[in-house]
Amino acid sequence: MKITVTGASGLLGSSVARTLVASGHAVTTLQRRPSGVDGARDVLGTVTDPNAVAEAVAGADAVIHLAAKVSLTGDPSEFAGVNIGGTRTLISAAQAAGVTRFVHISSPSVAHTGESIVGDGAGPASPDHARGEYARTKAAGERLALAADAEDFRVLVLRPHLMWGPGDAQLTERVIDRARAGRMPVLGSGAALVDTLFVDNAVEAIVAALTAVDVTHGEALVVTNGQPRPIGELMSQIAIAGGATEPRLRIPVAPALVAGSLVERVWDLSDHDDEPPLTRFLAEQLSTAHWFDQRRTQEVLDWTPRVSIEEGLDLLAAHCAQVGAVEHEDAARA
Amino acid sequence: MNHPGRPALLPPTLPEWDPVWSRIVDVDTGDGEHAFHVLDTLEALRAEGIEPTGTILALHGNPTWSYLWRRLAAATVDSALSGGRAWRLIAPDQLDMGFSERLTHDGLPTPHGPEVRRISQRIADFDAVVTTLLAEAAGSSAADVAVAGPQHPVQAGPQHPVVTIGHDWGGVLSLGWAARNTDRVAAAISLNTAVHQPEDAPIPAPLRATLAGPMLPTATVVTDGFLRVTLRLGELSPEVRAAFRAPYESASLRHGIGGFVADIPVDERHPSHAELQRIGADIAAFDRPALLVWGPKDPVFLERYLRDLRGRLPQADVHRFELGSHLVSEDYDVPGLVLDWLAAQFPTASETTPAPEATPDTASTPRPVTAILDARADDETIASVDFSQEPAQQISWRQLWHVTTSIAHGLRDLDVRPGDRVSLLVPPGNNLTAALYACLKIGAVAVVADAGLGPRGMTRAVTSADPQWIIGELPGLGLARAFGWPGRRISVSPLGPLQRRLFRTETSLTELARTPHTGALPTPTGADDAAILFTSGSTGPAKGVRYTHADIAALAAVLTRVFDVREGTGLVAGFPPFALLGPAIGATSVTPDMSVTKPKTLTAAAIAEAIIAGDATMVFASPAAYRNVAATAGDLNAEQRAACAQVELVLSAGAPVPLDLMDAIAEVFPAAAIHSPYGMTEGLLLTDIDREGVAAAAAGGDLGVCVGTPIDGVELALAPIDDAGNSADELLTGTAARGRLGEFVVSAAHLKSGYDNLWRTSAQAARDGLGGRTWHRTNDIGHIDDVGRVWLEGRLQHVVTTPRGPVGPGGLEALIDTDPEVSRSAVVGVGPEGTQALVAVLDAEGTPLSPGLAPLDLSARLRARVAEVDGQDLAAVLVAPTFPTDIRHNSKIDRSRLAAWADRVLTGDGVPRRV
Fold it and tell me: What is the ipTM of this complex?
């Protein structure tokens, strides 16, 4: 199959592209920087650029749309441009190019109103209720994708939830870095039950969606490891896998929510290329339950997570030990 | 105040209400034509192409309307659609009530005034409406018309049964109508209602205030006070409460509410008094099947009205929703109960199960429970030794026979009749034995609510059993007085005049024991009730369990057959239910010196003295008692040790016995076989395991608590549990039942005969008919291993339904409890059915663990164990500050409460200090 993957410079996108190449598919990638995926054809550009998009999807049978602006804070227009405009541009181009399968990567936050989620299904994306610019624009983007679903343009939406694992800079490395610096807080009791997704499982779920979309389409599915864990516990385990000690710093929930809002505002005013240490959205994510019913997901994708959280933690620890050893050698050489 | 009339209306859009049910019916009620709003499901059924094959006539009370029957309407239509009998529901709103016509009134209603529609007229109204509507469905069945003639086209009978149901004053009115129309009515049902008897007792207090002259119109019509108060007698959502209020929003619409209250015949001068008495008499003559559905927390329709109705309708089945109030059908599944009961009374061709060819249960009838006692009337050997008395009291068989026979005559002379219930509030010992066997001799039913239920639980239990008599020691009589239990009182020892008055006792066992043996005593048959025992109430209010004489005789026979307890055997009885069976078997029973409610007070010396006194070779007690016996064994002297060494059988009942305790018991009783049978109030002896069995089971890798194999005479089956946590209707037996999670279902002659005043619970527990036998659904879950041993894993309602399949919590708990850091655990589920997250909750007590998330390493270790052994994913390990358990055993963990606690913690609500 000829498959176009957008956003293949990130961990998930490049891993998906690499897996598809290894399975013998003809893979084209679209992102600003080279994907670094051997055997893939890189088209450099953004999803907001119609020419680059048209070039990337030309002749493709299927599109996997991972490109997004994911920062938890930032300029609202930039979110909308990539997550809504980019998606619209990509869909139009894909339809014009005769693509028949479209796997859209979304986020569970598109249906998250701040209330706890306890074993719920995916629920409809709601730009009006989603929290934060990222979630709002991703919600609108997902609705565009589902609205385009048709017999000759089959759309399946996957919402991976809190992905982590070796190489993940978004969550995993930040948790480890902060824990090493003694700045990783546990919010409240740390007992809120949260679903996460080990990166290898995310890759395999997306690959499975390429087949599944032919049978089931026009639907959104949350993808997780199906192993909810108390958030404080998993964060601690990730930190420990990364060589840090167990975080002891505890922050009550209510002050954290206020602090998150404040930090967001202050962060917006200044010029940072890093993420703020705490956002209100993140504070909510880390203090209320959100775990999902995975029965429909596993049925539709005909997939089950191969790597358990415990195995994932071992893989992460091994990875961190290796990276640490390399860093240590580098430092010694210097 | 002038109240203008108003025509009948169709209700607005209301929750749970289907507009297709609503119709306006004009009928001549004898005082002219009136318009009724009627809930009628005929349209709804015909829209589905279904023609009714039965009709339910429902009548609401005051101040409700046919909205009360909406769930019954929906349930009957659903049931018809899924192939059950097609019951049509006809439920009129009474005149001046609901959305029916408002009559013109010149003034407010008063008890003797002209502005009240009297109950006699209301029965006529009901008759007019239902006669008109029943005729509509007649044309569909020519046979009906041919059989019944044109007068009453819909015939009561197997073809098209007509039944009534009512609530509140609608209950007594519909019962009265049914009783007067037995040519049409096949059965009658009533929810909380009353045939008030002014000579018996005053009107209940809440009504008295309303009825007090000038207050009446103010409380009922001018204000919505009566309406508001009544609608609080159930857990109604604001939307539903608003729907009940919808037809009564203004004073002029509430005239009927006041009229109804004004028509309650408070005394003999009331205009409706004579009619209500006639209705009461007519109801007493009604001989068709009847069902009484009761919410005992009703402040107006009190227990005494249920008692009165049961007196009038002795054939009635009863189902009490023990925590239900006046609006019982709002809070409990009354439609399900009604449909089940109707299906049992009027089975359709497909529902009729062929009668069993042989009934193995009654194939061999054991001897009557009092036969041996009677046969030993002249035997001077020891029957019973009671160490609970100071000094210990020893009585011979002759004395026991004599005293029980005397008391039996005394009770008979007091007018205790066969079937009367006698609550026994006497601790185990000679007094209890004497009272019990006296009751058994004359067919009085012993109600045994043990102190383990706590005062509240005991009150609920005794009240639900509704004894005519209480025989009690002072503590029991004190409880009975404090909590207002029913029944005439008899003390154990004679009381002084002051205490007699205080506790309202009429006589004492001591006095009764002097009654001369004159005249014949009634003789109960095996099918007659002998005793009501109570479940421990760990999963809701304690349930009364009915044992017949044949059941108890069969239980005694089991002890003989399985454990070789026979005539002449000496046994130390430290476990209540078995302590009472000695005289039935002819065994010499010794009550050791201990407090029954505190089994830990049994010492090794006490048990040894009991063994010596009864020359006993058998000891029955609970694990908690044995734990203390083992702990105090060092205090035994040489003679006592020798006595313990002569014991051949040690039986431990009430809870499973771990191997270490088995070993400790073996040290005290070196020659004894140690057995731990498993059972429950509904079936006291089901399986058995001995010390070697426990050791062998521990060596295997199965999860749960092994309780051995079924004893001789017990058939065991398994109802597999599905992904939603429900047990299947189909039973598996033999090898097909092995290696899978299911509910245990048992059959034996010595099982209970039913639950008391819980018609539906009895029917559901005994719903299986495999092999023509009577079965009991135990509600206990677990699995049967590949050599046929039974492993318990918890209760059916505690099954955790994970996406990986259903989990019996007890199995994983047994696994988790082996961890050195864990004292005890409960495995629960949080989240929606079928996709629950599996959670282990640990007890903080006796450990250094603090409430909240368990330490990382402990969580990781337990999670790895669970994944390895059972393939399940343990989402979280929590530490709870306390563990809620039942009062009786302090061992049955309330997993439901722990689950609710865990749910809050894992939602991110913090860690509540109270579980």
Answer: 0.90
